[in-house]
Amino acid sequence: MRPDRLRAAGALAVVYVVWGSTYLAIRVMVRDVPPLLGAGARFVLAGALLLAWVRIGRRPGRLTRRELGAAALVGTLLAFGGNGLVTVAEQHVPSGLAALIIASVPLWVVVLRAGFRERPARATLLGVGTGFAGVGVLLLPGQRPSGVGIGPLLLVVLAAASWASGSFAGSRLATTADPLRFTGLQMLLGGLVMSVSGLAAGEAGDVHLGAVSAASAGAFAYLVVIGSIVAFTAYAWLLRNVPISTVATYAYVNPVIAVVLGWAILSESVSPTTIAGAALIVSSVAFTLRHEGVAREADPEPAAPPATDHARSHPAPARVERARARA
């Protein structure tokens, strides 16, 4: 295998595995760390480190109010609305199940496009309907994992919608920002919003550093360094060196990896209903992305971020074409 292909395969493997594993890390972190304060600290640290790296190595131009405002809006929708709500929900929702629901983000983007008078093709709408049917299967009474109420699951659905809104808004906010700086600002500002929300919710009283287990502390460190910085760096490199249709495959590979890791490491149950819902969601996302042509879409994240984690942590929400033009 040629060095460039080997490098591309390695970067794609990082995005697949790391962003697929962030749901597992979140589930472990919230055992001992308050969700909003933990997620907020994660993104503040990751954003600050990324901005420092950009400042030293790339020396971007002057920061404008427009760029700052766009980063604040998109960061709030992605980091706080997307990843933050997932982190809160994963106190009760298994990591694999959360990942499957978040996989519906590209479907929500199509809904938003339709709401803004764009006209998706009928085949795309059929794929979207199939995917949301899969989400409905996962929410069915009597089919959910024991002890998981409808409230936390609906919170994950809301997180997916928020993540899609951030991606949709970011793709339409004109900015000449350095993409790495713009993402660092999103992480930092979204993390600050989460931290303030955690303090307002009284989570400070739940912080007991001496009681934080090594597993939860390790999961937090993993989310900051590997989930946010390393995975995003690999993702940014892929956008500039690999066809976007290949990069976008992470959208339906990540949830599968998350389900497998949750089952293998945390002994999360995988019922026939979960498999059926997963098949509907993953296949519909794959069909929708391939049919629409992913170059039209803002890339959905991390959390964690993604959305991702994306971030899903999270990819830069600028249009894919714009990102490719910068390469």
Q: Which descriptors would you attach to this protein?
A:
327 residues, mainly alpha, 13 helices, globular, disordered C terminus
Please give the count of helices. Answer: 13
What is the radius of gyration computed over CA atoms, rounded to a whole number of angstroms?
18 Å
Instruction: Supply the number of structural domains.
Output: 1
Beta-strand content estimate: under 5%
Summed over residues and divided by their number, the pLDDT gives a mean of: 81
Describe the largest sheet: none
Order of helices and strands: HHHHHHHHHHHHH
Residue stretches low in confidence (pLDDT < 50, at least 5 long) are 294-308, 310-327
> Structural class, from secondary structure content?
mainly alpha
Number of strands: 0
Query: Helical content, roughly?
Result: over 70%
Distance between the termini: 24 Å
User: What characteristic shape results from the CA principal axes?
Assistant: globular
How does this model look, in words?
The protein has one domain. Helices cover 72% and strands 0% of the residues. It is built from 13 helices and no strands. Helix 3 packs across helix 8. It is mainly α and 327 residues long.
